[in-house]
Structure formats: C-alpha cells, structure tokens
Write a structure and sequence with these properties.
alpha/beta; five-stranded parallel beta sheet; Rossmann fold; 35% helix; single chain; 4 domains; 565 residues; 18 helices
Length: 565
C-alpha cells in the first residue's frame, strides 16, 4: 500500500483545498520548475484513496481515482525487486512525486507499502516481467539476479531499460557448469588465472551515470567486513588523497565502459603497495551508499531515479564531514534483541533505518544505522559501545584526532600532561618522535588522516613547532617547549618560526605547560563537537568549584596551616 503525505492549505476566496506536493530538500538542488496544483472541492468532502496494491501475480489494480500526480517526471519507473533497496528508492521517489512500481514475489515485501503499485510475481520469470513492463515507462533493477534474456528481448521491442541489459549480462555471475567445462575440457582455449589479492583495505565508490553519459562519483568510502558481511562503512575513507583520486578514477573508468543510466557501486581492493584493484561492480544502489541519505546533498536513491528518468544528476558531495554506517547491529535473532540494541543507540543520536521485512532471522539484514558527525574521530567515538557489544576491536577502528609530536622521548615527561588531558576528555591521540624526513611527511598528510590538531614540543629543537605549522593544512598547532635553563626565553622571543606570521596559525602556551596545550586542543575540537563542548563546560565548572573550595580553606585556616595541614 502507498501512504502519501501532502501539505494542505485553504483558500477562502475559492473555497478549495490546494494540495502542494513538493520536497524542500529536492527543490534546493534543481532549477526552478513550474508545479501543478491539484484542487478539490471542499464542499463535497470527497477523499481520494492513494492505495494501490495488486495481490494477483499477473494483474495490477487501477487507482481508484483518476487524478494525476504531477511530479518532477511523469514517467512511471518500474523496479525489478522490492527489497530494502527498492524500499529506499520508493522513499526517495515520494519526495520527488515520481511514481515507482515494483515487481516482487513477496506480497508484503519491504517496498510494497511505499510503492505506487506492487505487482506480485517473480522478477526472473519472463512472462511476468513482460507483463510488468507494459505498465512502466522505464525499467530498472534493485537486484542484478534478473532474467537478462527477457530484458534483452524487451529492449528489442523498444522498452526503455536502465541500465542496459548488456550491462546486467556482464555483471551477472557466469554459469558454474560452463565454468567447470571450460576448466576441465576447454583445451583449445586459453587459460585465465587470478592470483591472490593481498589487500589491506576494501574501498567502494558509488558512481552515477546519466542518460547523457555524464558521470559523477561520490566520495570514496572504506568498507569493513565481518563474517563476509559488510559490518561498517566509513565515509570518507581514511586514506591519502592520492589513493582517493586513483580509486575514483578506476571506478569512473569501470562505469564509463558499461551501458545505461543509473547508480553503480564499484568495490575495490587497496593493496599494501598502494595498488587499486577492481573487485566487482553492482548496477544498482548499494549498501556502501546508505550513508548518502543523511550525509550527502543527493542520496544514491534520488540519484538513481534522476539518472533513469533523464533528470540532471545531483550534487554527490558530502554535506557532513564524516559518516559511519553500522549494518549487522540489526542482524539479530529476534525483536527483543533488536530493540535492546537500538535503545542503546539513542544517546548518540543515530538515524535508524528499518527494512520492514516480514520475518526476522539471524544474519538477515533487518536494517542499518547511520551516524554523522563533525569528524571521523567524533563519529567513531560514538560507536565504541556498539562495537564492544559486537566484539569488534574498538581501538583499531577509532581514528586519532590529535597528534602529539616530540623531538625525542626525553620530551615525554612534559608532553604526557597533554596526553592525560586528552584521555580525560576521551579524545583519541597518536604520539610520535620525528626525524627531518618524517616531519615533512607526517605534517603534509596529517589532514588526510583526519588529524585535526597537532601539539608539538621539543627541548632542544625550537624549530619543530614552526616547521610543522608551515607544512600542515587547516590544522592548529600548539607547542610547549621544555625549559632547559633561561636560554629558552631568548629562543622563544627571537626564533621567527615560533610566530610564523603569514605561514601558518600557531598558538603558543607557557613553557612546560602541556596541560594547557591539551585543554586548548579540546576547546578547539569543541567548536564542532557538542559532546566535547559540554565536557569542557563541566570541567570549567568543576575547576571553579575547586578553586572556591581552596580559597575558602585558605581564608579559614591561614596560609601556614594551608601549606602544612
């Protein structure tokens, strides 16, 4: 059944109710268009049903009203498959007032309640697909396991299939029996052998291709799998800008070699020596792109609809700095366990997506959770409790947000105070010594690793903070040099890189005062992290109360008793 919500206003002069069908999020990203308004006479109190579900496997019921819905496209989009991807396609379509029909064998499949029309039938049955195609203007898929021969025949008859059947055929898994025969008896043909791919990370890129062959890539993401199931997706991927660029380039070339419009998911391997290897391509929206609903200006589902109906592609860039998808947290044994885990997530403000599947089974994808935040480090911190419940290595999953660097380990007794403060506020840090070569590499790539602030200090290398500051991008650098006799005062005031005017932005704290450097770093992070800001406010209040208590004791007992209790 279709449930559609519209806004209603009353015009007194015309005594009519005017239905406005629009989406603020959609309208903000396209050129102005003329909207058609649908009016009904208020006096007859007539209501129109917007529900249309077919329970017959070869026929669909007509809508009970003859009033058209005017959206951004008048094309009826037919989707082969009505699972969770089809459901989220329908959700995006409702914002655009695009009519989406689905073909799925399950009467109560996830997309059924949200679709414009649901035809019950198998999407790999030729006769059923042909019957379904007659009711659609453009045919697309949410699953690649469809009858590709039927799609090829439909294309020959003039049916608009997006992406093209040739693309589906390339992507579908080859027949195992044919593969066996080729391996055992195909002596007159060449041999194709694949070596093991020693990858260190799995990456993915959502790529959109329009009818005009325009191609746009979403930010590269990292996918982390557990028991062969995508467990976590990090957007953007915590890799260097060069790797992101090369990954996007591979994905772009892969999709440009295929035919048809729509959204494609390109899965990649990153090897230890920096190679980007193509794993597979899915000709549809993908679970690695779920985060785009909350984190991007145009979700992958809206983008797919735009592409197949011929609208201009939307902006694929992220509107939030970081996002994480947690998938299998909802792959549980029953509703009690699911609700228990979801209730544990309420304190971090996630977006929970239920797939509305009829049966709950272990390891079945029942939904996903998306968390967005000001940085990848902040988002990952919010995942800690959930990851612990899942038996996941929290420490390896959390990205450091602050770097503490030193000239040598002799500076650690001072710099440990900054680390102590950051640990107290729950800020993940990374510490390092440096050589001249390491310094330039570390500073230049710090922002690519989501290091937002660097605290630098050295006992005999006063140039260290300034050099780091001149090599970093969009980072605040603090330094707290160790005091080795009074000559340090001369160095602080005379060394030009301590000020770095016109080169970088540095904040200098007092000699040996790494504590203040840590506090200053927390306050800087708190500008975009409400949780840290609240913790800092509480810390300041606690400090104020502590000072007042000490002042009262000093006044009451006198300085001698205060010093010798």
């Amino acid at each position: 059944m279709l449930h559609q919500t519209v806004a209603t206003t009353t015009t007194a002069a015309a005594a009519t109710d005017t239905l406005f069908i629009f989406s603020n999020s959609f309208a903000s990203r396209v050129k102005p268009i003329t909207l058609s308004f649908l009016s009904m006479d208020c006096t007859n109190k007539q209501t129109h049903s917007l529900k249309c579900v077919s329970r017959d496997s070869h026929e669909t019921q007509p809508r009970k009203d003859d009033v058209p819905i005017h959206g951004v496209s008048e094309l009826v989009v037919g989707v082969l498959g009505g699972g969770q991807l089809g459901r989220m396609l329908c959700q995006a379509a409702s914002q655009m007032a695009i009519k989406v029909m689905i073909l799925d064998p399950l009467e109560n499949c996830p997309a059924s309640s949200l679709s414009y029309n649901h035809m019950v039938g198998s999407f790999d049955d030729s006769a059923t697909v042909r019957q379904f195609a007659k009711r659609c203007d453009v045919l697309t898929v949410e699953i690649e396991h469809v009858d590709v021969e039927t799609m090829e025949m439909l294309e020959q008859l003039g049916v608009d299939c997006q992406p093209k059947a040739s693309t589906i055929r390339i992507i579908q898994i080859d027949d195992l029996e044919s593969a066996k025969q080729s391996a055992l008896g195909g002596f007159d043909r060449g041999l194709y052998v694949e070596k093991w791919a020693p990858f260190v990370k799995e990456l993915a890129v959502i790529v959109a291709r329009g009818r005009d062959n325009s191609i746009l890539c979403y930010p590269v993401v990292e996918t982390i799998h557990k028991e062969n199931i995508c467990h976590i997706v990090k957007a953007p991927a915590n890799v260097t800008s060069d790797i992101r660029k090369r990954a996007a380039d591979v994905a772009y070339k892969a999709v440009s070699s295929l035919e048809g419009a729509g959204v494609f998911a390109v899965e990649l391997f990153l090897t230890g020596d920096g190679q980007i290897l193509l794993n597979e391509v899915a000709p549809r929206p993908h679970n690695s792109g779920h985060h785009t609903i909350e984190s991007c200006y145009t979700s992958q589902y809206e983008q797919h609809l735009r592409a197949v109906v011929g609208l201009p592609l939307g902006d694929p860039s992220m509107k939030t700095p970081a996002a994480v998808i947690l998938g299998p947290v909802l792959q549980c044994t029953g509703p009690v366990e699911i609700m228990s885990r979801v209730n544990n997530l309420t304190h971090v403000g996630p977006s929970v997506h239920w797939y509305d599947k009829p049966e709950m089974q272990k390891q079945r994808k029942m939904g996903h959770v998306t968390i967005v935040g000001p940085s990848m480090g902040a988002v990952e911190e919010r995942l800690k409790s959930m990851l612990k419940e899942e038996g996941f290595d929290c420490q390896s999953a959390v990205t450091p947000r602050v770097g503490i660097i030193m000239g040598s380990d002799s500076d650690l007794p001072v710099m440990k105070d900054a680390a102590r403060i950051l640990n107290m506020f729950g800020v993940k840090i990374v510490s390092a010594h440096r050589t001249p070569e390491m310094m330039f590499s570390y500073a230049s790539s710090a922002h690519e690793r989501d290091i937002q602030i660097i605290i630098a200090g050295a006992g005999g290398a006063a140039h260290l903070p300034g050099k780091y500051g001149s090599r970093t991008h969009s980072l605040a650098c603090y330094w707290c040099p160790r005091a080795c006799f009074l000559r340090w005062m001369d160095l602080i005031h005379s060394y030009p890189l301590c000020r770095c005017q016109g080169v970088s932005q540095l904040a200098t704290v007092a000699i040996n005062n790494a504590t203040n450097a840590g506090l200053l770093a927390v306050r800087m992070l708190g500008i975009r992290d409400a949780d840290l800001l609240a913790r800092m406010s509480q810390y300041q209040e606690d400090t104020r109360n502590d000072v007042l208590t000490k002042a009262e004791k000093l006044e009451k007992d006198g300085w001698e008793s205060y010093l010798n209790p």
